[in-house]
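Quick start: what a row looks like.
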Amino acid sequence: MNKLKTLLLSIALLFTGFNSANCASLSSTISKSEINKMATVAVSVKDAKSGKVVYEYNEHKLMNPASVQKIFTMYSAYNELGGDYTFKTGAYIDSVGNLYIKLGADPSLTTAKLKMLLKSTVAKYKKPVKDIVIDPTIIDNKQWGIGWMWDDDTNPLLPKYSPFSINENKIDITITPSKNGRQPEIKNKSSYPMTIVNTLTNSNNTKLSFERTPWQNGDLTFIKGSVSSPVKVQLPVTSPERCFRAELNSAIAQSGLKYSGVIKVAPTPKNAKELAVVSSEPLSKLVANTLKNSNNFYSEMIFKAAAAHAINGQGSTEKGIELFNNYFKDTDKENVLIVDACGISRNNLMSADWITNSLNKIYSESNFEEFSQLMAKPVEGTLSDRLLNISLKLRAKTGTASGISTIAGYIDAQNGKKYSFAILIQNYNMDTLEVKKFEDKLINEIYKM
C-alpha cells in the first residue's frame, strides 16, 4: 500500500509539472514515515510570488492549525492598527472631581506602569479626588475562548483575558520545602489574594500539579505533589477584575493619591480631562512577542483591540473574526473556521492549501517584509533549537497541542525562490519531539527544491 501511495504521488507530480526529483524525495519521506501511518499529515508548498503549486499532500483536509493560526489573526490586526500603534492606559478627571482610569486593552500593562500612571496623575492633579472609576469598555469581558479546555485553568500559557488585565493576569508564587516535618511553604508576593489549598509534602523529588474545580470548590486553587528544593511557578489568576483592583489599590497607596469616595466601574465621560497616560511598546514589538514566543494572551488582547479600532466601538473576539474574514475574503476559504485568536480551540479548522494561499496574500502586501520579520527564525522563540542549518532562510510559526503539531511560513529555497509552506500533523500518540524532527526533515527537503 505504501509503495502504491508513493507511485501515485510520483505520477501526480509528473502531470502537474513539479520538480519531480525533489518532490519525489519529499513524497518518499512522508510515505515511509511511521508518523504518516498513524496520524494525518497535510503539506502544501507554493511559490510565494506566482502562487504556483510546488507540492501538496492532503492539502484540502480541514485540520486544527494550533498556533499557526496566529499568523493570520495577528496579520489582520497588524494590518488594521499599523506597526506603530501603541496601547494607552489613561487617567482622566471629570468636572466634579472623579478620577477615571481608562483601560486600553494593553496586554503588556504591569503594576509598575500602573504606579507610574498614578504618580504622574498626583503630580498633575494635587487635590484629593472623589470616586476612582475604572473604565473597561474598550473590549468585552469574555475571558476564555469557545472550545477551551477546563483543565487549562491553571495553565500559565492560557491565562484569562479581560479589559482588566495586568501582569498578563498571572501571579508568581514560590514553593519552599520545610524542615522538621513541616509542610512546604507557599508564598504569594502579589497583591492578589489567591486562595490556595496546600497539600504538598517534602520529598527528594519535585513533582507538582495544580487544579481548579470551580463547579465543586469555588475559587480554590489546589497545589498537590512534592517538593525537594525551592521552586518558582506562575499561576493564572481566577478573576482578572479582582486582580486588577488589588494591584490598583497597591498603586494608589504608593502614589499618595487621596480619594473620598469608592472604586467603581463606569465609562469615561466625553468631557473628562486627560491627566496622564502610559503607553505600551509599538504593536510591532508586541506582535513579535506573540509570534516568536506564541503568546496566547497577547494574541487574544490584540485581536479584540484591533476589532475595537475597526468598528470604533467595543472590541470582541466575534468582531475580530469579522475583521479576519474581511481581510481574507478573497482567499479560498474551504469552510475555514476560527473561534479564537491564538488557535488553542479544537473548534478551529484550516487546510494546508488555505494557509499557503493566505501566506501568499500577505506576501503580496507592501508591509510584508516588516511583518515577516516579526515571525521567528531559527535561534528565536519556539524555533530556538530547530532548523539552525537554515537560520537565515526561514521565517515561520509553530503550533503545538495535545496530538497536534504544525508549522507554516516562508522559506528561501536553494533555487533562489521564496516558498510559502504549511505542514499540519494531528492525531498522533507519540513523543511530540519526534514529530517536530519529522517536520524539520520535510522543511529541509523543501529547502532543497
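That is the whole record. The two ends are 27 Å apart (CA to CA). The first helix runs from residue 2 to 16.
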